[in-house]
């Protein structure tokens, strides 16, 4: 059983009379020799890690060794001035929370990468809190996100060293948009539209970690990625069509990643990492590390 494009999965759904979550459950069972129970047991473990990482970042002291991140999630959640609705504000805070836990070497689910690990947990927890989505439905949503991840991995790249942050937070936003669209009753075509919108909004996003650490600007890009996911899902559910099909958008991310300068792909040599302040932070962080090592 092989899916090379999102359109292959949609065709399977039509042929078998199944939705995308069921199609991906079939894929896991047939390609990995798992039972349905084993597939869902694995999903339960992933969801639990996601929930726990959100909770840890939102309730515990989270200060990274570099000092760059210091309980930002709680700061966003408690802000008195609001430019977002309550749901999106909390989604952004939750995304940052997981980023802070990751930067402190906490346990996270890299979905699809550690640098973009805040987006899907924030989406799923927010859907549970704001829409009353059950955990059982969230497991199905994770299967839908796996469809996007599978095809993106085959035709582009998750690696910041190959596709920049477009490949990390961009793909995670697309996966999140697919999950939201599915959970709110969108059909397969609308799920693909949401994926296309999210990836187009991330096209060309560079990977330029300050000091080579997955902290700045990675953490705040997770928050923006969550907003991208919800906006993209809203567009798709409203019935707007992406002029470029999702499979072609994924192919375009591969081309853009190949054309991107190596200095802008996780090297710490360009973009924000190469600013005056970025270099000063790098020197301070490495001086601290050397002092700690004695």
Task: Name a few traits of the molecule.
globular
Word description of this protein:
The structure is a single chain. The protein is mainly α and 294 residues long. The chain has one domain (6-292): 2-methylcitrate dehydratase PrpD (Orthogonal Bundle). The chain has helices spanning 6-16, 20-32, 36-59, 72-77, 86-103, 119-131, 135-155, 160-183, 188-202, 218-237, 246-259, 276-293.
Strand-helix topology:
Blueprint: H1 6-16, H2 20-32, H3 36-59, H4 72-77, H5 86-103, H6 119-131, H7 135-155, H8 160-183, H9 188-202, H10 218-237, H11 246-259, H12 276-293
Q: Gap between N and C termini, in Å? A: 55 Å
Number of helices: 12
Number of domains: 1
CATH fold naming: 2-methylcitrate dehydratase PrpD
**In the CATH hierarchy, what is the class?**
Mainly Alpha
Proportion of residues in helical segments: 55-70%
Mean pLDDT: 96
């Amino acid at each position: 059983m092989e899916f090379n494009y999102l359109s292959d999965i949609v065709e399977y759904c039509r042929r078998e009379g199944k939705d995308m979550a069921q199609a991906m459950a079939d894929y896991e069972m047939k390609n990995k020799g798992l039972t349905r129970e084993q597939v869902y047991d694995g999903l339960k473990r992933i969801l639990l890690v996601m929930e726990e990482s959100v909770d840890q970042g939102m309730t515990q002291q989270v200060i990274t060794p570099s000092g760059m991140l210091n309980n930002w999630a709680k700061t966003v959640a408690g802000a008195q001035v609001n430019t977002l609705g309550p749901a999106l504000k909390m989604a952004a805070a939750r995304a940052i929370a997981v980023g802070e836990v990751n930067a402190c070497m906490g346990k996270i689910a890299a979905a699809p990468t550690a640098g973009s690990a805040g987006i899907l947990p924030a989406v799923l927890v927010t859907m549970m809190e704001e829409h009353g989505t059950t955990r059982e439905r969230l497991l199905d949503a994770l299967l839908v996100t796996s469809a996007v991840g599978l095809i993106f991995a085959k035709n582009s790249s998750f690696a910041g060293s190959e596709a920049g942050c477009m490949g990390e937070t961009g793909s995670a936003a697309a996966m999140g948009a697919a999950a939201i669209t599915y959970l709110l009753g969108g059909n397969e075509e609308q799920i693909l539209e949401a994926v296309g919108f999210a990836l187009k909004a991330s096209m060309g996003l560079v990977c330029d970690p300050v000091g080579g650490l997955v902290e700045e600007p990675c953490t705040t890009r997770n928050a923006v990625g969550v907003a991208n996911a919800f906006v993209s899902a809203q567009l798709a559910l409203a019935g707007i069509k992406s002029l470029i099909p999702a499979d072609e958008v994924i192919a375009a991310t591969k081309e853009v990643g190949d054309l991107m300068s190596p200095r802008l792909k996780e090297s710490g040599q360009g973009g924000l990492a190469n600013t005056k302040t970025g270099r000063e932070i790098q020197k301070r962080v490495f001086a601290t590390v050397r002092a700690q090592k004695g």
